[in-house]
């Protein structure tokens, strides 16, 4: 699923709607011809999830790399949620039975991609760049500062938003992984159904 960064920034600045609303509404305005009956012309598209996704990856479309750092900060604040309902990103019917939280961000700056990954702590984030891992001081606020405040370079633009089950959920293996002393992550113990 993809949405324009401008739509996410506008929703953040207007303090209206949710991340799910922006992604769903973006695709509601993209009708297509019918694959089943071959009806020519535009038909509205309706999608629903029959099963909750364990991980949801959302793409942010930027139309320029010359962005105002304040817009990037507004977008980052807007997408940082522990309550994303994956069904509502596709349909206006959701039930929040298994909300997802922002677990990782892939960002783009100067023809280079890097990632911020949430650790096992309450608000611990690490920046991954070419094999190096740097802990972000200040938790998610540190992520926002790193993305927006490195003058004179352009801000780091969020490109992929990765939402996963919160740590402690029975199926949240990635989110509960812990950093090891070799610059990687150790897998959590296997989940045993009882």
Write up this protein.
The chain has four helices and nine strands. The protein is globular. Helix 1 crosses helix 3 and helix 3 runs antiparallel to helix 4. The C terminus is likely disordered. The chain is α+β, with helices and mostly antiparallel strands. Strand 5 and strand 6 form a beta hairpin.
Extract low-pLDDT stretches. 172-179, 181-185, 187-194
Shape assignment:
globular
The number of distinct helices, counting runs of at least 4 residues, comes to: 4
| Mean pLDDT over all positions | 78
Using the CA coordinates, give the radius of gyration: 18 Å
Q: Summarize the main sheet.
A: 7 strands, mixed
**What's the total number of strands?**
9
User: How do the strands line up in the largest sheet?
Assistant: 1-2-7-3-4-5-6
Query: How much of the polypeptide forms β-strand, as a percent range?
Result: 15-25%
Please estimate the helix content: 10-25%
Q: Output the helix-strand order.
A: EHHEHEEEEHEEE
Note the gap between the termini. 35 Å
Structural class: alpha+beta
């Amino acid at each position: 699923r993809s949405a324009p960064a401008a739509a996410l920034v506008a929703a953040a600045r207007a303090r209206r709607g949710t991340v799910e609303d922006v992604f769903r509404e973006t695709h509601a305005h993209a009708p297509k011809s019918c694959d089943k009956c071959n009806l020519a012309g535009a038909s509205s598209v309706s999608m629903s999830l029959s099963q909750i996704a364990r991980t949801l990856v959302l793409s942010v479309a930027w139309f320029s790399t010359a962005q105002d750092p304040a817009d990037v900060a507004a977008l980052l604040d807007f997408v940082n949620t522990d309550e994303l309902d994956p069904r509502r990103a596709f349909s206006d019917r959701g039930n929040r039975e298994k909300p997802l939280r922002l677990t990782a961000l892939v960002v783009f700056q100067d023809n280079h991609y890097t990632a911020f990954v949430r650790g096992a702590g309450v608000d611990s984030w690490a920046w991954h760049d070419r094999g190096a891992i740097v802990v972000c001081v200040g938790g998610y606020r540190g992520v926002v500062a790193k993305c927006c405040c490195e003058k004179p370079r352009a801000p780091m633009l969020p490109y992929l938003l990765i939402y996963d089950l919160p740590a402690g959920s029975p199926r949240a293996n990635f989110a509960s992984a812990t950093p090891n002393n070799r610059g990687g992550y150790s897998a959590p113990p296997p989940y045993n159904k009882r």
